[in-house]
Recover the amino acids of this structure.
């Protein structure tokens, strides 16, 4: 476990790990914000760390790695996304101890909502209830045809992703092939009949569920815990700014976050920090460690 370090305090009576422990004990409406860091222990790279996804893309010669998730570029050339998506393809039936920690908060009736920026859908394997979960940037759970909106389970397009091939819509593909054969290719958009995973690209609106919930949850919550995110992507990053000042805010992250004013920052690997907290919270706070779901 990396050393737990305390940073600046926002309000006077909430500034150390003991305060976090007592607040977790008392709270019953915890708003948990999560990001890629809660899945890195399973081998899924995050985006912005030195060994993250973006650094890998840079070595592939992409000038701005975020372009891979640009909606316009996807329509112009879906092969770019499909050539690298295998790198972030989520494993199935697996979750981290940190996912178990969130599930434990839910089981103890303490979880108001988990706002996750992750697209790996691992929260569902951990048993986070759909009502308790906002997948702010969508997920790989489903994929939709950009032409006819036909929807399939995400797993259906995983083989194509693994093979670095574009996944085509089972309904539109025969028309696409016919049009191509008839030499009408110049009229055919590159993305005709292409399946797009239901993840939110830059240039797309966040799912409605996010906007419907966040306003009320900010008024209702009694503790915010932000875990494994650099908080660099709006509007999720803005949640922290919008929290009423009386609500204590805790960060659990490997690296410090300097642009937000958390009351307490517990710096370290989130699985370890969560285990440490649970150990201190007592014997009824056991988080299961096996990473595979039963
Ligand atoms: P990010 O910007 O890459 O930040 C990740 C943060 O997590 C960094 O601050 C790291 O210090 C921290 N971190 C990494 N590993 C650990 C760990 N084991 N314990 C604690 N902290 C750790 O990623 P964000 O989530 O902030 O950015 C939002 C993007 C990332 C969303 O749009 C996601 O869709 C996207 N993303 C998701 C996944 C996934 O679903 N697993 C993977 C990669 C990227």
């Amino acid at each position: 476990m990396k050393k737990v370090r305390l940073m600046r305090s926002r309000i006077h009576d909430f500034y150390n790990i003991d305060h976090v422990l007592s607040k977790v004990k008392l709270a019953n409406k915890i708003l948990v914000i999560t990001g890629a860091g809660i899945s890195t222990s399973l081998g899924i790279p995050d985006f912005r760390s030195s060994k993250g996804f973006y650094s890998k893309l840079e070595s592939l010669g992409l000038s701005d790695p975020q372009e891979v998730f640009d909606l316009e570029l996807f329509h112009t050339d879906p092969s770019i996304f499909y050539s690298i998506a295998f790198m972030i393809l989520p494993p199935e039936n697996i979750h981290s101890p940190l996912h178990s920690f969130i599930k434990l908060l839910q089981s103890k009736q303490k979880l108001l909502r988990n706002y996750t920026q992750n697209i790996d859908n691992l929260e569902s394997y951990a048993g986070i209830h759909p009502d308790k979960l906002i997948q702010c940037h969508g997920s790989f759970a489903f994929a939709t045809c950009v032409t006819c909106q036909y929807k399939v389970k995400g797993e259906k397009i995983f083989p194509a992703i693994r093979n670095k091939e574009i996944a085509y819509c089972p309904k539109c593909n025969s028309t696409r092939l016919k049009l191509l054969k008839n030499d009408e290719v110049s009229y055919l958009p590159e993305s005709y009949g292409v399946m797009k995973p239901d993840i939110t690209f830059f240039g797309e609106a966040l799912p409605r569920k996010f906007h419907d919930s966040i306003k009320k949850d900010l008024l209702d919550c009694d503790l915010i815990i932000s875990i494994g995110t650099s908080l660099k992507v709006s509007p999720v990053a803005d949640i922290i700014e919008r929290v009423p000042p009386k609500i204590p805010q805790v960060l659990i992250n490997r690296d410090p976050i300097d642009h937000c004013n958390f009351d307490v920052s517990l710096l370290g690997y989130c699985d370890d920090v969560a285990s440490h907290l649970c150990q201190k919270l007592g014997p009824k706070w056991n988080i299961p460690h096996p990473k595979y779901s039963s």
User: Anything to note?
Assistant: The first helix runs from residue 17 to 26.
